[in-house]
């Protein structure tokens, strides 16, 4: 996190105390974007514990590469704990990467292009694409309003009742955190974790 990002967010009326409490936070690009995208799909709509169990089994039993996932027996993927739908989704991601989508190409795209490229893959939605921008590509100015934790964090820092702020208003309020909305998001998740 740059000094400018820290200074700006710390000076924010609503987020400043949270920034002060948690100090500098960082965004680090992932070494293997393909693996991280597969993990994001595994994690969708699961508890942290269930997702970790399935992820560990998958990485123990299958080579988590585009080729490895495409040749893996469906029964092996199902035995790891993937639903039939998620088997299809991880294979869709593997096909997209085998057909030319790559870490290098994604890194050269702007945020909207990354979201467009990823959401063309069946099983990858906007939430997953925005998480990819933040946690895989380490983009500094992404605001994933689709995320429940972000919305709960916004309610806390703006001191409003649950569901009192429409998402459009949350996006508008987050504009003041640009160009550091990814860092602001990290702080909002910290609020919820506290």
Automatic annotation (TrEMBL):
Task: Specify whether Transcription regulation is a keyword of the entry.
Answer: no
A molecular function GO annotation: DNA-7-methylguanine glycosylase activity
> Which GO biological process categories is it annotated with?
base-excision repair, AP site formation; DNA alkylation repair
Xref: Pfam families: HhH-GPD
Question: Domain named HhH-GPD: which ranges?
Answer: 42-193
One cellular component (GO) term of this entry:
protein-DNA complex
- Per UniProt, which keywords does this protein have? DNA damage, DNA repair
Q: Which InterPro entries match?
A: Alkylbase_DNA_Glycosylase/TA, Alkylbase_DNA_glycsylse_CS, DNA_glycosylase, HhH-GPD_domain
* Family as reported in the entry's similarity comment: Belongs to the alkylbase DNA glycosidase AlkA family.
PANTHER family, sorted: DNA-3-METHYLADENINE GLYCOSYLASE
Q: What is this protein called?
A: DNA-3-methyladenine glycosylase II
